[in-house]
């Protein structure tokens, strides 16, 4: 008996897709290893796909040219591939884009089921952004896309509540993101200067947006460095990421570095440089006000890096296991967290590092998460009467 066919459909599989692309990649690789489904990935083709294809291993990938805004990606080729697909079930990663319309058209033609993976895109603050455009997309097709979904793969119970605020009867299953154990890198990242070798490196990694708490982190860093010149001398704050509607970020970083000489923004990091950047850090700092489930925290843990994070990161396992320290969202709380991390000795760092790696292996390994996703997809096929 042949395996049921699964199409994973998303906007981008390259670095341009950010965390959504990374989760789609991990899901595809994990499900191939799990073995229940015949997995195919379908996306648009952008300028970074060719250099990122090696990250997809032997996965079957179909990518198509697009036009229009990169956030929407109108692709006739993708539409036809999805519409005529022989898939038994589809999983849609990400909302508010053209690929969701294609999957809805396939469902209306075939009656076959699909699962939506919103990636936090139904959070209230997301719905408030670009309201006019979102209302138009909702009226054109997305309201029906949400209504017809056979299930929702959400990251947290908080995301389940966001979905049910729109669809009270929605079938939601909370499944965390997966991350594999990482092998040690044999080199430092390009941004790592000689002065950093004697400093404890605090890393902020990912999209730099107001909701991520970058401003509170900068304010906390300024206060702590002014208050404790020893902390300033033995510490380095590094921002790795791209700017998202934060016009004053570069000025703030430049002012801090001019005063203390220990703050830098080194831009987004990908592939090997990303792994080296995480490994070069002593502590990851994420003072977010709102998150789905941040992949970068899992990636830091897979490298054995302790984390300072807020409860908004939705990873309470990190606090319980000793892999993370809870901080608040305001600057005084971030100051307290940084000061506590500064007091950690090497034995505490080693203990937190071991706890981080153990937590990833127990709760977030590709095999564990792939099994949970496979169970959800199989249950959708059973409920739709299409199980083989």
UniProtKB/TrEMBL annotation:
<keyword id="KW-0808">Transferase</keyword>
<dbReference type="Pfam" id="PF13692">
    <property type="entry name" value="Glyco_trans_1_4"/>
</dbReference>
<keyword id="KW-0328">Glycosyltransferase</keyword>
<dbReference type="InterPro" id="IPR050194">
    <property type="entry name" value="Glycosyltransferase_grp1"/>
</dbReference>
<feature type="domain" description="Glycosyltransferase subfamily 4-like N-terminal">
    <location>
        <begin position="18"/>
        <end position="177"/>
    </location>
</feature>
<dbReference type="InterPro" id="IPR028098">
    <property type="entry name" value="Glyco_trans_4-like_N"/>
</dbReference>
<dbReference type="GO" id="GO:0016758">
    <property type="term" value="F:hexosyltransferase activity"/>
</dbReference>
<protein>
    <submittedName>
        <fullName>Glycosyltransferase</fullName>
        <ecNumber>2.4.-.-</ecNumber>
    </submittedName>
</protein>
<dbReference type="Pfam" id="PF13579">
    <property type="entry name" value="Glyco_trans_4_4"/>
</dbReference>
């Amino acid at each position: 008996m042949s395996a049921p066919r699964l199409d994973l459909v998303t906007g981008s599989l390259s670095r341009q897709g950010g965390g959504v692309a990374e989760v789609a990649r991990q899901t595809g690789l994990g499900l191939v290893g799990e073995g229940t489904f015949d997995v195919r990935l379908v996306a648009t083709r952008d300028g970074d796909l060719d250099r990122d294809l090696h990250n997809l291993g032997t996965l079957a990938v179909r990518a198509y040219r697009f036009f229009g805004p990169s956030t929407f990606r109108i692709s006739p080729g993708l539409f036809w591939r999805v519409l005529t697909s022989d898939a038994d079930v589809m999983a849609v990663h990400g909302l508010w884009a053209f690929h969701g319309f294609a999957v809805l058209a396939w469902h209306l033609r075939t009656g076959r089921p699909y699962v939506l993976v919103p990636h936090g895109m139904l959070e209230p603050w997301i719905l408030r952004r670009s309201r006019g455009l979102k209302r138009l997309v909702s009226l054109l097709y997305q309201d029906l896309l949400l209504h017809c979904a056979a299930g929702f793969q959400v990251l947290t119970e908080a995301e389940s509540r966001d979905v049910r605020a729109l669809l009270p009867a929605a079938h939601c299953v909370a499944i965390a993101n997966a991350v594999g154990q990482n092998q040690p890198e044999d080199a430092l990242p390009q941004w790592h200067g000689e002065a950093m070798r004697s400093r404890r490196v605090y890393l902020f990694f990912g999209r730099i947006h107001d909701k991520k708490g970058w401003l509170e982190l900068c304010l906390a860093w300024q206060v702590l460095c002014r208050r404790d010149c020893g902390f300033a001398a033995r510490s380095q704050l590094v921002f790795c990421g791209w700017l998202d509607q934060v016009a004053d970020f570069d000025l703030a970083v430049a002012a801090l570095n001019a005063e203390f000489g220990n703050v830098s923004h080194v831009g987004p990091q990908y592939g090997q440089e990303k792994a080296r950047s995480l490994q070069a850090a002593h502590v990851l700092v994420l003072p977010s006000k709102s998150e789905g489930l941040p992949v970068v925290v899992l990636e830091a843990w897979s490298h054995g890096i302790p984390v300072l994070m807020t409860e908004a990161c939705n990873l309470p396992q990190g606090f319980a296991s000793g892999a993370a320290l809870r901080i608040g969202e305001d600057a005084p709380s971030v100051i307290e967290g940084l000061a506590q991390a500064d007091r950690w000795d090497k034995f505490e760092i080693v203990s937190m590092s071991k706890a981080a790696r153990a937590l990833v292996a127990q709760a977030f390994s590709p095999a564990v998460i792939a099994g949970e996703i496979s169970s959800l997809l199989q249950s959708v096929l059973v409920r739709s009467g299409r199980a083989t």
